[in-house]
Structure formats: C-alpha cells, structure tokens
Amino acid sequence: MSNLPNCPKCQSEYTYEDGAFLICPECAHEWSLESETEQDEEKKIVKDANGNVLNDGDSITVIKDLKVKGTSLVVKIGTKVKNIRLIDGDHDIDCKIDGFGAMKLKSEFVKKI
C-alpha cells in the first residue's frame, strides 16, 4: 500500500499519482507535493522588537523616533498605529499614521500593543 496523503480538499484516501501530480478521483482535485512544501516555506513570520509575532490587523506602538525620508517630519516614540498590514520587503509593515498618511515601517522599530 502506498503512503500518499489524503486529498487536501475532501480528505479522500483514494488519491493516486499521475506524473508529478496527485489526483483525487472523488472531487477531481489536482495538486503536487512540491507546492504544499513551497506554501509552508512562503509564510514569513514577522516579529516586533520584543519578539512577539505580528499579524494583519494588529495595533502597534513606535518605540523610537523615526525620521520620515524626504521631509522634516518625525514619527515620535509612542505613536500608536492601528490595523497594520504585513508585506514582503525590507519595510514589512504597511499602515496609515494619523497626521502622516500611508507609510511603511520596519518591524524592528515597533512593539505590539
């Protein structure tokens, strides 16, 4: 008996291999084992300065005065930001700060509330 995984869509145990793909005869779902492992690796964990895991929609506080590039404005320490979005890149938090507008922040300069 083969050790093929159950179908991720309907949990059927009657999956079979067809080349590089696995196929479920009950719901006709096709997938590859490689795509499952790639999806797990793509999930990047973003942590704040204290090591807490950040998620979309969290509220954060700035822990250091941050100069806004191209202006003379400064985001002061203790500024609260609500409803963040996590993105890929060096600046991994996308948010809107009252008085400044849309901005991207590095997770190392914030802490989760």
TrEMBL record:
Q: Which Pfam families match?
A: YjdM (PF03831), Zn_Ribbon_YjdM (PF08274)
SUPFAM superfamilies to which the protein is assigned, alphabetical: Prokaryotic SH3-related domain (SSF82057), Zinc beta-ribbon (SSF57783)
Every Protein YjdM C-terminal domain range = 46-112
InterPro entries, from UniProt? YjdM (IPR004624), YjdM_C (IPR013988), YjdM_N (IPR013987)
Q: Which residues form the Protein YjdM N-terminal domain?
A: 4-32
Gene3D superfamilies given for it?
A: 2.20.25.10, SH3 Domains
Which family does this protein fall into? Belongs to the YjdM family.
User: What PANTHER family does this protein's entry cite?
Assistant: PROTEIN YJDM (PTHR30305:SF3), PROTEIN YJDM-RELATED (PTHR30305)
Q: What is this protein called?
A: Protein YjdM
